[in-house]
Amino acid sequence: MKDIRADFPMLKKYPKIIYFDNACTALKPQSVIDAVVGYYTEFGACGGRSSHQLARKTNNKLDESREKVAKFVNADPEGLVWTRNATESLNLVASSFDFSQKRKVVTTVMEHHSVLLPFMKLRDQGKIDLEILPCDEYGEVSMEKWSSAVDNECALIVTNSWNNTTGGENNISELSKLVHDNGGLICVDGAQGVPHHKTDLKGENIDFLCFSGHKMLGPTGIGALAMRKEDIPKLKPFIVGGGTVMKTSTEQAESATDQTRFEAGIQHYAGIIGFAAACDYLSDYGMENVEKLERTFANAIVSSIVNAGATVYGKHNRAGAVCSFNFKGGKPHDVALMLDKENIALRSGFFCAQPGLEAIGAASGAVRASAYIYNTLDEVKKFSEALEKVSILYG
Amino acid sequence: MVLCIIAFFVFAVMSIFSAKYRPLAKEGFRCVFRTIMLKPCDTGMDERIKAEVVSKVLKISPTLARFTNKHFTMIAWAFVIISLGSMVYSGFGLYNFYFYGNCDGPEAVGACIINDLTGDYGRFSEPTDLIAPTNFDGIVAGNPEANITIVEFGCFTCPYTKKAESTMSELLEKYNDSIYYVFKPFPLPNHQNSYEAAVAVLCAERQGEHGKHFELQEEIFEQQEVCTSDGSLAIKQLAQDAGLDMNAFNQCYDNNETADQLDEYIQQGKDSHIYATPTFFINGKTIVGPRPIEEFEKIISEES
Ligand SMILES: Cc1ncc(COP(=O)(O)O)c(C=O)c1O
Complex ipTM above 0.85? Predict the structure, then answer.
């Protein structure tokens, strides 16, 4: 495999730092940075509005970007809506979904706050009935639990495809079959899943897929909601304004029928183009290679943590190289800061998933190491040594 | 929380010199402020300092690092207390420097340092600067014919001059015939009512009745604190108690009739480069401060 580290300017700038905070956000390759800058230096105009040559050129680039990002998750470009991030995509689904026929939503305690909060808000407003499924000690929710909760009253289930605390994986195909059999729909939080394994919207029968560009080598401030194009008119517009309508008088506005009904105002063009460049990069690298590497890192990181005498949350054998842990008697922030002194950059706290962390026995938070394609086994070795060193302070 | 208090002070001082420290001082301040408002310090500064310290210690000794990590809050508190203590101490030093001309206060030299910030007193500070006086006027005792002359420049409201007084009495008793003792009042400008006390003693001396002025002098030393704070009121009361003719005394004191005499002594003190009281010249050899009697006796025996 070619050495991709050279593609990442941050790795060159900080050669000593081991970046293990990829579940929070990923570093960007030069091609993405160039694509972002390229919008301002090459295109620079409005998309979908003006008709001069620069606008046409911009428009073509934006269409092409939409196609690339949609294709990356095997969705139709006509069903892909630009948002700011996974959180906004989730909020869009929560606030636009029609709960007038059925009002039951099922989710799990292991979700990110970006899943829990929008739906808890609807619950508190009396708009939905929300069932939050508990998990086992590994942070997993069994198919039995799902089956007993999902009945024909269920309008929607919302869950992540990959977990941001345990690196655990949900079987989305199975879940979508379950909910579809009961006449409901599935909304997948793909913030972690899309960057780290092959996501197939059509193949897995996902109705709504929410993801962010920044966790998959793309720019910050750009995300997407992918769905089938037939479902677009079913969702009520969320934020309205320029670009979301076909016809407007002061008496009435007629919403656009395509995805632009959700894309109010001038979009983050540079971000969109950068997002597409990130998808290109990952596609070139091969998502099957990403998956393989994830497993290798997951195993190596989990072993390092176990060897250092710390507790790892979730199953040891996991798909994602996302490993949360704690030293007995060590405050997560303190441990993270000690590791920072060893040039290991990782995250500590609740990872925006406090109920989940409490459910798996990390009520005071945890430390999280997460790897991505540009990390190396040598870095994991250094991480392991640093952990050994820090472990002296505890136990 | 604990460390941010120190951090705030340290970085606040450092930020005076370098802008680099200003954000840190700000962060420290925010943390201190939140602590005062009984809210948790949310800047993470404490944790960062802890990690910094522990990782440094870890390089030296794992056991020590472990201990530091475990008892960090306690260590931090100890550090805060020590730092606050040393800050107070430094403040005290600055105060002393301003009022006494040295950081350690009056005790340090064991003499009353002249600190005349605006005047022309006390421009010297070393024993080697001193020049023995050639004039033996003053409040005198002992044998004028003696081979040994002790000249003392002293201030009646200086605790060290007071301290030396008993030594002088003892010497006079012991070597009465063989020493001549000359006391030159040298009121320090930084001592309250020192001038008034000197005037009082000189006025008492004028009344000629032998011993009365010594009695007043003794009483002024005895009641030094009251004289310093209450000035003329207390001094006159002591004069009355000493049995002086109060009409004559008031006449002399209120009109400052001894001004010329006193100014002469002060001028002699300045000429001798006096920088502290009491200063003694024993046949030209100098002693500054109320030194033990043995030091005086040593010079006396050398000179006799
Ligand atoms: C599982 C999961 N869902 C949602 C999000 C929210 O992503 P964003 O902050 O990009 O909206 C994250 C990010 O941490 C995540 O890990």
Answer: no
> What residue segments make up the domains of chain B, in order of their start?
1-60, 139-303
Report residues whose beta carbon is within 6 angstroms of any ligand 1 atom. A 23, 85-87, 112, 114, 160, 164, 189, 191-192, 212, 214, 352
Please tell me the predicted confidence (pLDDT) of residue B105.
61
Superfamily covering domain B139-303: Glutaredoxin (3.40.30.10)
Apex B61 CA angle, B60 and B67, nearest 5 = 125
Q: What is the pLDDT of residue B47?
A: 82
For position B42, what pLDDT does the model report? 67
Count each helix (H run) and each strand (E run) in chain A, helices first.
13, 15
Cβ-Cβ contacts under 8 Å, B48 against chain A: 337
What is the mean predicted confidence (pLDDT) over B118-134? 78
Cα nearest neighbour of B44 on chain A: A333
Q: CA of B66 to nearest chain A CA: how many angstroms apart?
A: 4
Inter-chain residue contact B47 with A334, CB threshold 8 Å: yes
Supply the pLDDT for residue A222: 98
How far is the C-alpha of B276 from the C-alpha of B160, rounded, in Å? 9
When pLDDT is cut at 50, 70 and 90, the band that residue B109 belongs to is: low
B40: preceding bond cis by omega (within 30 degrees): no
Q: What is the pLDDT of residue B104?
A: 63
Residues of A in contact with B66 (CB under 8 A): 392-393
pLDDT at site B121: 73
Q: Is the overall model pTM greater than 0.80, yes or no?
A: no
Spell out, as residue ranges, where chain A has pLDDT lower than 70: 1-2, 395
Average pLDDT, chain A: 94
Q: Which residues of B touch A364 (CB under 8 A)?
A: none
- Active-site annotation holds for A352: yes
Residue nearest to atom 9 of ligand 1 (CA): A87
**From ligand 1's centre to the CA of B182, what distance in Å?**
92
Sorted by where each starts, the structural domains of chain A and their CATH numbers stand as 31-284 (3.40.640.10), 287-394 (3.90.1150.10)
CA dist A52 and A55 (Å) reads: 5
Q: Residue A277 has which token pair?
A: 């460049």
Task: Look up tokens 């056991």; give the residue.
Answer: B63
- Judged by DSSP in three states, A395 sits in coil
